[in-house]
């Protein structure tokens, strides 16, 4: 039986500018393919900004002067990044992991869902709505579901970059400057672990993500150095 692949697990202790992170992860993705660099999960936070995916619609940027806006080049629409949100950039070699994009995205979803189980959060995906959602419908009340994590990835030469963002304790009002992921429906909003009444720290979220990643992606994680 072959050993599980080793994946470096790097955590940036301070917020990293989106521009620096975007350049660094593209360089590292190139190094994976061309130089045999090890796979990596890079955990970080960003200063407040909005990012536009390849499917972003101009009308979904409700307040274009509130925060910087960056054309991310990933899949998806508009999303928000900021302090209190754990961004995980996923730099994996899919050429060595089966070249199955649908399975890869499904594993990203399952990774988040498994991590949230550590805090007894029952989350799942929804048909036609990207990301991971929590049902907050009250008995006898109208439907209410909130997104707790977003997914947006890109592949280049079968190496992934970009990744996921999990709302631990971001300022949720900051999402009001966009239509998050293009979903403009009062029944669907955004939430976080702290908003759900769970006083989870970033270290606890990181450990839950690490353990769930090892289980879902069948990998051994080892400490690594942040890219920027």
* Total DSSP helices: 3
Strand content: 25-35%
The parts where pLDDT drops under 50 for at least 5 residues are none
Which sequence of SSEs, written as H and E, runs from N to C? EHEEEEEHEEEEEHE
Largest sheet: 9 strands, mixed
Distance between the termini: 36 Å
What is the compact description of this entry?
The protein is an alpha/beta fold. It is 22% helix and 30% strand.
Provide tags for this entry:
228 residues, alpha/beta, nine-stranded mixed beta sheet, three-stranded mixed beta sheet, 3 helices, 30% strand, globular
Structure description:
This protein is α/β, with parallel strands linked by helices and 228 residues long. The protein is 22% helix and 30% strand. It contains 3 helices and 12 strands. The protein has helices at 18-35, 101-117, 202-216, and strands at residues 6-11, 39-44, 49-52, 69-71, 78-81, 85-91, 123-126, 129-135, 145-156, 159-167, 188-190, 220-223. A hairpin with a 2-residue loop joins strand 7 (123-126) and strand 8 (129-135). Helix 2 (101-117) packs across helix 3 (202-216). The mean pLDDT is 94.
Question: Would you spell out the secondary-structure blueprint of this structure?
Answer:
Blueprint lengths: L5 E6 L6 H18 L3 E6 L4 E4 L16 E3 L6 E4 L3 E7 L9 H17 L5 E4 L2 E7 L9 E12 L2 E9 L20 E3 L11 H15 L3 E4 L5
Parallel strand pairs: 1-2, 1-12, 3-4, 9-11
Antiparallel strand pairs: 2-6, 3-5, 6-10, 7-8, 8-9, 9-10
Helix pairs in contact: 2-3
């Amino acid at each position: 039986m072959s050993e599980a692949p080793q994946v470096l697990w790097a955590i940036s202790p301070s917020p990293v500018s989106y521009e620096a992170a975007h350049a660094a992860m593209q360089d590292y993705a190139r190094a994976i393919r061309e130089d045999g660099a090890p796979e990596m999960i890079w955990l970080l936070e960003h200063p407040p900004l909005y990012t536009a995916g390849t499917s972003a619609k101009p009308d979904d940027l409700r307040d274009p002067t509130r925060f910087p806006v960056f054309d991310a080049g990933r899949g998806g629409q508009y999303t928000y990044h900021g302090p209190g949100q754990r961004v995980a950039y996923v730099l994996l070699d899919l050429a060595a992991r089966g070249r199955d994009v649908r399975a890869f995205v499904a594993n990203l979803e399952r990774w988040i869902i498994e991590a949230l189980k550590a805090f007894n959060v029952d989350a799942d995906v929804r048909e036609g709505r990207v990301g991971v959602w929590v049902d907050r419908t009250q008995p006898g009340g109208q439907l209410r579901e909130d997104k707790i994590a977003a997914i947006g990835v890109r592949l280049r030469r079968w190496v992934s970059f970009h990744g996921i963002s999990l709302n631990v304790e971001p300022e949720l009002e900051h999402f009001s400057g966009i239509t998050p992921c293009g979903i403009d429906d009062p029944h669907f909003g955004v939430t976080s672990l702290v908003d759900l009444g769970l006083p989870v720290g970033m270290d606890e979220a990181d450990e839950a993500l690490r353990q769930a990643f090892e289980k879902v992606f069948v990998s051994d994680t080892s400490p690594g150095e942040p890219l920027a």
